């Protein structure tokens, strides 16, 4: 493996990762935003689907529960979250493959997946990392494959903008400013995606969570 790229852990600091699930449960409408994400992904029988940045496994588990005939892969950079997600998945007896990578090249050949989805990851990537990651997603998607991203988007009210400062203090302003400025779709287009659109959003206690879609 090459030298690992620096990354922001799930809750901003490595020692907080064990509290991630509890924090999300307390600060977000968890069932609502994750269910809606999987509604957007719509896992079908025999489809190959990748979750980029699976974290503690909450979305990928939900995707498997929605359709256990979908072939699910997860990719993350942090061994600590892999351990947490793997523990849950093993306990449930689900057949989901979780991979790690060093932060540059995804460990999959070109045109591997029908769909790639991702939630709450891009606001943790700086501009120099967002675009290469989107290009890797583009590379591993099959032609006409779908990208679904759920992440912090342009605040839909002054209150949402104010509340989002909580996330920015934890995760830093450098990586989160692009999100709150509504620039994620621009990055997706720059990576080569077409039909890029913000499909929907949910206002939460800590900001506006938006759903984006695009096609390779
Ligand atoms: C806030 S957590 C989101 C976890 C999960 N997707 C969710 O919806 O709860 C962000 C995740 O992105 C991962 N991450 C950060 N930088 C990354 C990178 N460069 N490549 C892949 N994953 C990354 C972190 O390890 C963490 O698991």
TrEMBL record:
One Pfam short name: Methyltransf_11
Residue ranges of coiled coil: none
Residue ranges constituting the Methyltransferase type domain according to the UniProt record: 50-149
InterPro entries named in the record: Methyltransf_11 (IPR013216), Methyltransf_Superfamily (IPR050508), SAM-dependent_MTases_sf (IPR029063)
Alphabetical list of CDD domains matching this protein: AdoMet_MTases (cd02440)
Xref: Gene3D superfamilies: Vaccinia Virus protein VP39
Protein name: Methyltransferase domain protein
Biological source species: Leptospira vanthielii serovar Holland str. Waz Holland = ATCC 700522
